[in-house]
């Protein structure tokens, strides 16, 4: 089962992007092969909701990250030869074992047969790649190998147990590929043992994607997340969290425990609420992939879904419609919560499509309702700080804010999360500074 | 004349310009048949008057032509053709005119170009336009009450006199030949009409084009002309006001006068606050242009400016700068108000990007400060109804009205009719409840 997400979440967190814009995908995409890139995209599309699966991915990545001078162990040129060779699946293209007439032999001597050349190149490249995989696996100290790696290695290297490998391909035996045996090898590679070979190729692509992720993690100082048991007292613990796509992002710390499963975030408009929400969203998303996250350390609980509403499209000009879009989004989440799903739910500036009064009422009621859903996590940001007063008696809400400091009447932002509710009353300060009331007096 | 004070935000709110913009005031009043007429209407809408006389003058002209029994008097085909001639330099003397034209004729004869033909046919078209205009003015003079549109009438009279001159009249009866002599003598005579050539004639035709268009609009919709008064310091009294762009719009009454200059308007989101405020603002704006408006009657004092904040884009992402821009604008308006300028100021949901406390404090403080100035009128809308409680105590003569929401089968419906009092409709929460959100969560 995969983690519940939707397009809105993918868009909010910029997991993928159109064109050449930076995205989480482009952030990790340092794959060597095209197949590796496809694997990475597939992985990113399917975050997981099983602790064991996530842990397996984390373990493999931890292993890869521990390898000194980690590098993709294959030459990318070999892959184009293999891909070209394997992509021809028509049985008529099979190399025939026919006794060649003298005439044919003569022609063969004079002019290279393109098909046989491709086949030879493809098989040789395959040989090299398998060999490199074997060496790569063998170079990892046995003590480091975890169950998940062994599982991965075994399934990838099933190919070395085939007679195809043993009889022909194993380079240690140095069997020459000749005109005499090529038709046999071709038959095995492309037809008889096709599944095993494709399985092996998929594993190499996966290795490509994983090595790319591990390399990015090493270069950018990312860390692998730790999974908490559902019963753990700590709800979420993260330190040094930053937005990977924002240059010079300020790191933040957040530690929630003792039944705190709602984070109530306030702060002025430019104080960095959305960016903080996006960073946390991205980290939770990556954590459910078992990927390294942009933080110093992170402990989290695996849940069933991640719903963010940060940049809800407001191209609809009418206030009601935007409000209604928000209501529908809330309803969507409500349905999942009603189905006993454990969710991560993010709402940025909830009900901004309506008036302050309605937004106040709606936010308050909704938060009271969310407070009963103790196995889901809610992050709600709002500029309506008054809601906090009404909720201060609830001990499952953690109040945090992003401060604004006025320096020479100009607001300055620290982008550092602090405990409590924003009391920035800069609205009135600005009005006073502009002396509007004096003008009218 | 002083310029009418307004700004882009206001013009955007009122949707004044835009030939292809749906429901723009320009589109509503534009039934012109020529591009020049279109441009003139645009100029009218760009420059509302700040004096009563020219407003009454334009109103009178429109009223007069509305009563005129025939259609637009000028043949459009001729008008198009005449354009070429009208753009010609005027002939300064007969000899040079003759020489110039002879050259054209010669070129035509040896087949170099067709300038001559174009010139002469354009000239003939011009002449028949003048004939049309002459007939029209003669007809119009038969109508009564022409003295009411003093200035406009003076313009018409001026042209009328020239067209009545023996020289021009002689041209009308001229049996037009294609001879150089005839054409150049017509050309010379027309050039003599005024220093500006035929400019006054063209300008009158443009004006007629616009007004005949407005006449069409008046036939389709029940419009009225504003009555400007000097008996008050500030007055805006409207009966059965409708939004100009809406068909079957609900009509409303409103009176803002010296002893009650501020309207404090509340109501739910869809209840029609913005529509009402736009209707008020556009009726005031159009009245200062001298155009008829969508109401039963409107009596008002002359204003020097109009400022509205109705569709301020909700750029939360711009954050501080957006709020700051809003404050800056309020300040600019405050300065004008403090300078005893006569304005209509409309604020829809002031300070909505900030928290409730700030919005409440700021809204009451600003409204209260405005209320002490009776040379301008104000309409302020907000969702923070608590502001009304505070303001009611401070300013007993402030008006409190609201647009109600009526619940039918738990669905909000709207009457769009203004009522006395303060709205307490909170249907946002209701919509959440209607969608069953809370039950779903608790399930």
Automatic annotation (TrEMBL), chain A:
Keywords: ATP-binding, DNA-binding, Nucleotide-binding. Signal peptide: none annotated. Gene3D superfamilies: 1.10.1420.10, P-loop containing nucleotide triphosphate hydrolases. InterPro entries: DNA_mismatch_repair_MutS_C, DNA_mismatch_repair_MutS_core, DNA_mismatch_repair_MutS_sf, MutS, P-loop_NTPase. It holds the Pfam family MutS_III. It comes from the Bacteria. Residues 260-438 form the DNA mismatch repair proteins mutS family domain. PANTHER family: DNA MISMATCH REPAIR PROTEIN (PTHR11361:SF99), DNA MISMATCH REPAIR PROTEIN MUTS FAMILY MEMBER (PTHR11361). This is DNA mismatch repair protein. It comes from Sphingobacterium faecale.
UniProtKB/TrEMBL annotation, chain B:
This is DNA mismatch repair proteins mutS family domain-containing protein. Transmembrane segments: none annotated. It comes from Sphingobacterium faecale. Pfam families: MutS_III, MutS_V. Keywords: ATP-binding, DNA-binding, Nucleotide-binding. It comes from the Bacteria. Residues 260-442 form the DNA mismatch repair proteins mutS family domain.
